[in-house]
Amino acid sequence: FSPSVLGTREHWDAAYERELQTFQDIGDTGEIWFGEESMVRIIRWLEKHKVPLDSSVLDIGTGNGVLLVELAKSGYMNLTGIDYSPSAIQLSEKVREKEAMSNIKLKVEDFLAPSAELSGFDICIDKGTFDAISLDPSDAVGKRKLYVGSLCRVLNPEGFFLITSCNWTKEELLSEFREGFEILEELPTPKFCFGGRIGNSVTALVFQRK
Which CATH number is 5-187+200-209's, of 3.40.50.150, 3.40.50.2000, 1.10.10.10, 3.30.470.30? Predict the structure, then answer.
């Protein structure tokens, strides 16, 4: 991938500072990465597989925290969101407050250097964070390896990892997460047709930690 500002902390700090100001001004929670259907897809999978409502869930790069709010509305009780941008966590705290979802825990954490207490999760969810790391102008390859190592540390054995990406194909993600994870399922995403070939602009996979 070509390095991009989308892979820098400065970009996301500035973006969430703007979204925080907009929320305070007009109550708009901001962008939902990959749209609402991406959240529905995740929740449907959890419900279909009867994942217990008390399972511990970590949203990696939670942003505005809207996914956690939707999970809480679906009955999930043990929810944590992390983001390395303090402005993102401030925004997600405001959204949590507005929705009166006091059971959602939020922390400023860099997933590439997680604190010791960030561990023991049954489910980890990523919508776009691995994509952003892949665009980091500073050693993206090394940071992707750190990401996989962190995931192995925080996710319980047999735990589920649900990832949504617009940068990576299924085959590429299988290669990136081959150490310690096995593919369970590819989730259906919108298809497009171009030049007589059908493809997906978004990839959504479910892995299980070995």
Answer: 3.40.50.150
